[in-house]
Write a structure and sequence with these properties.
MetI-like fold; single chain; mainly alpha; 284 residues
Length: 284
């Protein structure tokens, strides 16, 4: 098939001023300032927490002071329980998120490319999306037992829906002229999907990936209810069973910190891959 040539005016290199965006002056300083501003609310919350404890609004058994939570972290780290549970939860979320993202990517491309697949699959997927996470627990136990498989599956279910929804939405918002250009150059089917549609939908896909990762951490605690003997969800349940409010608060803080850190790492990947978009330069 003859490939159409580009018009002469588009064959010239871009002017230097617009060929590649230059890094903003003071970007590092602006990032550091943004980081310091982001610390204001956490520091204020810790101060409010200490004030509530000192005023006796809650007893120490209900809300331990910050230093007791730090002491509980040191105790668990000394006994070897802290990092072992963190590592196991990280592995579970990583594998579950990868599985859910893979299925969402495949189905999202199929539904985005085919109106028939959209009509066939979308109603069922949207109905499944409405099922609460805990409703899957007894069914997964019956199907898969109490090993790792049901935990990873539940995390994958949580990650799947935001990724799928955002990818399909991003594909549907692609400029039809871009698709027509791809077809004019002989791209069809998988080549069109991977060469044109997926790159054009990357901003929406990364939004879904970040939401899916956050959802994976939300589903982690429910997943670790499935006969788990390790992990942050298990640590949370164990602290509740032994009335150790310091361990409960510590686990909640760890989930927040690790979830934010993993989101930040994914945001860095997004900024690197999407340097050509305006949104890539926005803060996380």
């Amino acid at each position: 098939m003859h490939t159409p040539a580009l018009p002469r005016q588009f064959d010239r290199p871009l002017p230097r001023a617009i060929a590649a965006p230059r890094p903003r002056a003071g970007g590092l300083r602006g990032g550091a300032l943004r980081g310091l501003v982001g610390l204001i609310v956490p520091v204020a919350l810790v101060a409010l927490w200490q004030w509530i404890v000192e005023r006796g609004i809650y007893s120490e058994s209900q809300l331990p002071p910050p230093l007791e939570v730090v002491a509980a972290a040191r105790e668990l780290a000394r006994e070897g329980d802290l990092w072992g549970n963190v590592r196991i939860s990280l592995i579970r979320v990583g594998w579950g998120f990868a599985g859910g993202a893979g299925v969402a990517l495949g189905l999202g491309l199929i539904v985005g490319l085919s109106r028939f697949a959209d009509a066939l699959l979308s109603p069922t997927i949207q109905a499944l999306r409405a099922i609460p996470s805990l409703a899957w627990v007894p069914l997964l136990l019956l199907w898969m037992g109490i090993d790792e498989a049901p935990k990873l599956t539940l995390i994958g279910i949580g990650a799947f829906f935001p990724i799928y929804t955002n990818l399909v939405s991003g594909i549907r918002q692609i400029d039809r002229k871009l698709i027509e250009v791809g077809r004019a150059y002989g791209l069809r089917g998988p080549r069109l999907a991977l060469g044109v549609m997926l790159p054009a939908a990357l901003p929406s896909l990364f939004t879904g990936l970040r939401l899916g990762l956050a959802q994976g951490w939300l589903f982690l605690v429910a997943a670790e209810l499935l006969g788990s003997s390790a992990g942050l969800g298990f640590l949370l349940i164990e602290g509740s069973g032994s009335y150790r409010s310091d361990i409960i608060v510590l686990t909640i803080i760890l989930l927040a910190l690790i979830g934010k850190t993993s989101d930040f790492v994914l945001h860095l990947v997004e900024r690197r891959l999407l340097r050509w978009t305006d949104g890539a330069h926005a803060g996380s």
